[in-house]
Design brief:
Largest sheet: none
Helix content: 55-70%
Number of strands: 0
Oligomer: single chain
Distance between the termini: 74 Å
């Protein structure tokens, strides 16, 4: 009975591992094929829009 559980755990780990690797590989291939070539342009445009925005959150000390 113990051997059954060991076999079950091995097969479960293989299924989970293969699924995880398959997801990572598929995501990488899809980003290369369908991701476009304008990532830097989009990022720079977003940064240009946000240049003068106020930072929010966190602790700030007020000087009186």
């Amino acid at each position: 009975m113990a051997l059954f559980f060991i076999d079950f755990l091995i097969v479960a780990n293989l299924i989970i591992g293969i699924t995880a690797v398959n997801g990572v590989l598929t995501n990488g291939i899809a980003e290369k094929l369908f991701g476009g070539k304008r990532h830097a342009d989009i990022y720079q445009h977003s940064q240009k829009i946000q240049t003068n925005w106020n930072q929010v959150g966190g602790n700030t000390e007020k000087t009186s």
